[in-house]
Amino acid sequence: MAVHLKNAYNWFKKYYAWLLIVSFLTIYLTPLGTHRLFEPDEGRYAEIPREMIESGDFVTPRLNYVTYFEKPVLTYWMSAAAFKTFGEGEFAARLPSALCALLGIAAVWWLGARVLGRRAGVLSALVLGTSLLYFAIGTTALTDMPVSAFITAALAAFYVGAVSRDRRWYLIFYAAMGAGVLTKGLIGVILPAGVIFWFVLFANKWRLVPHVLYAPGILLFLAISIPWFYLVCKANPDFFRFFFIQEHFLRYATNMHDRYQPFWYFIPLLPAAVMPWTGLLPTLFSKGGVLRSPASPKDVDAVVFFIVWFAVIFIFFSMSGSKLIPYIVPCLPPMALLLAMNVDRMAGRGRWTGRDLACVVTVQGLFAAALFAFALSGKYLARGEAMLTAALVSGGLVAGSSSALARWVKARDLHGALSALCIGALLFALGLQSIYAPLENMRSAFAVAQTAITNKMDGERIAVYGEILHGVPFYAKERVVLVNAPGELEYGASQMEEDERAEWFPDSGEFLRRWDSGSPFALIIDKKYLGSLFEGGIDSGAKTIDAGDHLIIFNRKDG
């Protein structure tokens, strides 16, 4: 028996990296096509590349067939490539985010292994890849994970290049910044440059300044980032003003998009963001931790770099007049590196204690209990469905924590306890997939879009009142009339001729005039808006379909 266990251990030690890679591929790729697109973001970021393919114009992004300049183009290109390869569905729409999440995990793994050692590299990847917020954004069609991955790759390449004094790594640094600029604008270069500046200042590494100003890398950055901006400005003369002045400076400095939150908004989100590793946060400040007693000058530099990496990005977005939860995803890689570095250091020195383990297990237990308490409340989901979801999400945590405690109490087996926590975290991330299906009924426009598509007749246009449901044009594969709801499409609508704008973005009066004149529509309207549009009520003979929170009304007689 002992021989078999030894052989199994040796086999695992030899192939653990491949097992971990397979685990991450499973965790991040399997949920992509299991649920419909969520509103509003996923519908938006799927519809833009779909329209690119339809029009053949890969320079000017369009949403509901009007120009849309809030983000650069790289994510749309990646999604369009995925659509061409896998078809225009949910899996392909989310694939770029998932691949970029895996890129970020790989970059952290590589950086940790190169700078901190093999075990710390593996722990860094595990902490990052199984963290709640990282997983959630990495399996959602957004631009936040791609830009986070490119910032992570850029800073990892910079630090390895700086430590090894090998300037060739700076080619990856500059290429990743160029990709970041093409993904979400100037933050793709401002944030990495800010991290490097403050690292140089705090660590007194001024010799790095001429070293990192690497001409081939700078040329590569310009070659990646400049051509599209030149082409889009040439095709759309107002792009520069809208994109750089309004969507960068005014959006950052003001609350023009009504997303104002206080400066401290992100602070209470961080513990939840790194769940199930939240219980490790206090160990960073322990007497034997890397923050208070780094082992060597090399460790000091690494700690300073990781802290600056986290702090610059966190403070930058905290100071912004516009805040959304996904903005802090680029803060998670340095947090993962710090936590892994600390655990590896304390484990190697025998300073990991039962108290540290108890903190991790207690926080995980409280999280599991909170999930079940929420499920019992029946606030959003049927109680049975909510309880099943809570069990699937927390099952891995409970199993991992229980096993870790057993290993520690029975034999003071530190490595066994850590391994149990890691396996529990992987199961936790796998269990998170169960959340998406229940959310579909609350967050997706698929059902209402499908009902409208199935019941509308040839020549009838789909119209949406009072809101923008981006999933409707994606699933319908056609342009939608938006009544009293230009919203984020206000800029694109303003570029249209007056008659065309009235046709596709009418106000209530114009729409009702066309409705009463018999223009064929399939109107999607939230029930709460019904009285504001039809003050006298709907024609009793009109065909009306109940679609949950929405009604679909046709200005033709039922039957």
Give an account of the 3D structure:
The chain is globular. The N terminus is likely disordered. The strands form two sheets. The protein has a five-stranded mixed β-sheet, with helices on both faces. Strands 1-2 form a two-stranded antiparallel sheet. By secondary structure, it is mainly alpha-helical. It is 65% helix and 6% strand. It has four domains: 26 residues; 284 residues, no CATH class; 85 residues; 113 residues, no CATH class.
List keywords for this structure.
559 residues; mainly alpha; 4 domains; two-stranded antiparallel sheet; globular; disordered N terminus
Short description:
With 559 residues, the chain is mainly alpha-helical. The chain is 65% helix and 6% strand. It has four domains: 26 residues; 284 residues, no CATH class; 85 residues; 113 residues, no CATH class.
